[in-house]
Amino acid sequence: MTEYKKTLNLPQTDFPIRASAAKVEEACLGRWAAEDTYHKIVESRKSNAERRYLLHDGPPYPNGDIHLGHALNKVLKDIIVKYKSMAGYYSPYVPGWDCHGLPIETQLLKESRVTGHESRVDILEFRNKCKEYALKYVDLQRAEFKKLGIFGEWDRPYLTIDHSYEAKIIELFGSLAEKGYVYRGLKPIHWCPTDRTALAEAELEYEDDRSPSIYVKFEIRNPKSEVNSKIKNPNLLTNLPWSVIVWTTTPWTLPSNVAVAANADLEYVFLMVESLTIPTVGKKEVFIIAEGLVEDFKSRLYHVGAKCHPIDKTKGALLEGILVKHPFIDKEVPVVLDNLVTLEQGTGFVHIAPGHGIEDYQVGLKYKLPIIMPVDANGNFDNTVPDFLKGKNYNDANKLITDKMKENGALLKQELIKHSYPHCWRCKNPVIFRATEQWFVSVNKNNLRQNALKAIADTKWYPAWGETRIRGMVETRPDWCISRQRSWGVPIPAFYCKKCGKPSLTGVFNQAIRELVLKEGTNGWFAREAKDILPAGTKCPFCGGAEFTKETDILDVWFESGSSFAAVLDRPADLYLEGSDQHRGWFQSSLLISTGYQGRAPFNAVLTHGFTIDDKGKKMSKSLGNVVDPQDVVQRYGADVLRLWVASTDFRNDMAASEKILKQVQEAYTKIRNTCRFLISNLYDYSHESRVAGRGSLLEIDKWILLKLNRLVERVTKAYDEFEFHVVYHSLYDFCVNDLSALYLDMSKDRLYCGGKDSPERRSAQFAMNEILLTLVKLMAPVLSFTSEDINKYIKFEIRNSKFEGKGENSKFEFVSDFDIRDSIFLHDFPKADPQYLDAKLEERWEKIIALKLKVYKELEAVRGRKELGSSIEALVEIGTKGREWAREVEAILPLVFIVAKVKLTDGEAIAVKRAPGQKCERCWIVKEDVGSDKQRPTLCGRCSSVVR
Q1: What would you measure as the largest C-alpha separation in the chain, in angstroms?
Q2: Is the confidence at residue 813, as pLDDT, over 70?
Q3: Is the peptide bond before 463 cis (omega within 30 degrees of 0)?
């Protein structure tokens, strides 16, 4: 056999058997940078103005190394942009960073003695440090993203601290102000006492918290006769004290109480009870509670010996205007009516503090109630409260207030409950509702809410439930609080007249700030006085005053990032892609600003992805030790394994990552790469003439695999178009592992290795394998970018340097690749299905053939298991044709398909496996009856003898 081994066409390639990811990636990154591959791609598609696809990048914060969520997000975007570019679209990608905001400011406050809240010089110094910090991490994250193979305008990203970007924010603010959307008002907003700033809904996280649940007496102060005449129940006991019972989970807000709310449509019951509170234990009194909550109320108090029974009832509407005594402050407050009172829990009475809740605030507007706000920016009580609360933190006040009410008998019951409560998304501490003067965008002015809802309906959402989610948020959202009491950000561009105190936002005022910011950036606002910013002679439009002061608050960073569509794009984006939390964040802020500014959404479609979790479904956390570091993954497995992980799971759900999962992905990657390596290694002598010859004499098996290939192209293209990258992954994997490795390549090895070098059978196989390889490398390029580029280099090298050893004038024919050796794979067009291979009859026939192969394989394994045969190439398979009449049409190719020595068709239905007649060929190892027919080569079959002759 030694002498015949040299006659075999064994695979040859320099393509390494091991991936050597670090070396390959370094080489690719170097080449892409040296050849400016990204801009070549963009320029090559720029002429296709009508085929333009813009994916707009949502800006992350540059405040640390990238984490797995960053990698997931950027790889998804890169897959889309690369696919669209290869599909012929002009698809530039401009990455961005949100460089202002609390995350950076908080970090700098930890590291610096500069507070950011003192003199103008200190503020400028602090802001400069923030800028340095942000730019440092922009550079760091940019380098880390590039290592993932992300293409984009890395040298020209958009930064929210660019002067032109900041000026665009000022312009958008002015435009919304001119249309009447922007106003300043005293309203309760979410306030973080830790960071001392207002927060928008998008900056909240809801966590379970334990709060005191209390039942409190508000004793009725009206004369009983007056109440009786009002509610028309003259039989009530007038000699007992009457109280409405209020339930609340925020005792600390009681100092701001100005009313008690009931529901006009509910029935309220008068309960005669035996007092349970010190110092009136045993004394009888009357409690008023909603009828639907009486049993719940009784059950909560019975365990301490409560004795109570109803004596009458009335409609809630008749309680309006009754005065009740505050439980620990010497004042009376009215009973008011509102539908915010429900039977969901409590007593049917709600304490109203307009300074501590938006619903309470609405009730206050209705009844013209005062807004009391005794809590300062740090969450401490001021001097307007009773002495026992002055200077105390609101958290400590809960116990102080309940203790006070225990002493005076106002507290009926206290327990702790667990409920969802808003926390600051940065410091993770609980927030409070606190009424302060803030700037707002009105969502009801000029039908902004309804126009935004229409824009939502006009947008394509992936997945579809995203539309329902954001619609619900916009339908119920309050006005947008856009002011923040911080230093690192874009200032709210407003001037206050010293004479009348009214703010000016538009016209010459807005224009002056825009010009200043374009020239000096927003630092100019903090460095200059109002008189140095405004043109000489500027007058207040309200009173004619000539002296102004500047607003000290800055804009919500969501307003900044939400302005990116106007600062970066020249038309609506085809796609926004971010995590699902951005339905209440960037998607919504962009939507509201754009709808108010230009009457439509800034996007045509929105795609959301889930969050990263571990393989047990738990959220990744450093404290749990289940964080997967993308830099570590790249170092150990290579960037393409990380990219393949991104594509492997339906990212619209939360995505699990762990060491075990990454190893599984690496195994899948290795199988795909090895399949490509096998294809390359069998094309070492393939040439242009071979390609022509192969196309002209395709075997049916090769037509079948090309049919499968083109079905793959259809399926993968559709999956890319619909952002179903997990379908791309599974389709490519299944094709490589099942259609190729397990079937086609296994069935083709004999003719590739043992057939004549230029035989029609071998050239047919090589033609098919070349088409497969060229197609596969393009199909997987958007996902496996480094590997595809690397494989592409080897394809070109081997084909470019191959010689076709034909006869006569073709003996020295050198094949030159169809593609320039300098071309990146990303400069090629994405494959399209070739209709000439999409033969439905052939497809149907081969479905039957493969199904029959599986049955034959089962019989072969049974025989081999009994040690009756060694290899399948020693077997004769007899197949009954009853119900398989079609098999006679393909009888000649069945040995090749089944990888057996011989196939014999018989009558009946049975499938039988026997030892084939003949002898084993020393060269191809197949048992054949014509072994020895060539007397000069008695150990070879006829085919092998002719090949080596």
Answers
A1: 131
A2: no
A3: yes
